[in-house]
Amino acid sequence: MDGIGAADGLPLAGRPWHSDGMDIVDKARRSAMMAGIRGKDTKPEMRVRQAAHALGFRFRLHRRDLPGSPDLVFPSLRKVIFVHGCYWHRHAGCRYATTPKSNADFWQEKFVKNQDRDRRALTDLVAAGWDPLVIWECETSDAKVLSARIASHLGPREENDLQG
Question: What is the pTM of this model?
């Protein structure tokens, strides 16, 4: 092979994975890349925050005293929103929920633990009287649909709610 990807003509050296599924960066570099992935203030989360704010809602961020540390918390409404990355939280049927071919057992175990933790957090929140909503990363690209979904979950804003 001449080092050019057959599908798109891009050099393989610029890609994180070879077409055969092998990682082309060493373990230390891959570890550093994975460690750099943020859990807060991601683009999808910022889109959700902006949409909720534009709708007139005010919220708290990442309340660690609640199960799962929800991304947005609306205390007076007893509602929370989680913004889940499709890859890390395994959005079923989503094109972003790929599974690495190398070290497959490790990744499978990690993804199962993530999903179990997500289920426990949602169950615990509901048991504590909270109403959770999960918004997937891939669902944040259409601003109008996103705003409608948030408004549907949080309900109508009343004029007196805007005061405090």
Answer: 0.75
- Closest of 131, 137, 161, 140 to residue 70, by C-alpha: 131
In order along its 164 residues, the chain shows pLDDT tens digits of: 344 444 444 444 444 444 455 567 787 876 776 666 666 779 999 999 999 999 999 999 999 999 999 999 999 999 999 999 999 999 999 999 998 888 889 999 999 999 999 999 999 999 999 999 999 999 999 999 999 999 999 998 764 344 34
44 Cβ contact partners less than 8 Å away, ≥ 6 residues apart = 83, 85, 135, 137, 140
Residue-range domains of the chain with CATH: 8-37 (no CATH), 39-163 (3.40.960.10)
Q: Judge contact between 44 and 37, C-beta under 8 A.
A: no
Integer Cα distance of 55 and 36 in angstroms: 32
| 3-32: b (≥16 Cβ within 10 Å) or e | eeeeeeeeeeeeeeeeeeeeeeeeeeebee
Sign of CA dihedral 31, 117, 45, 128: negative
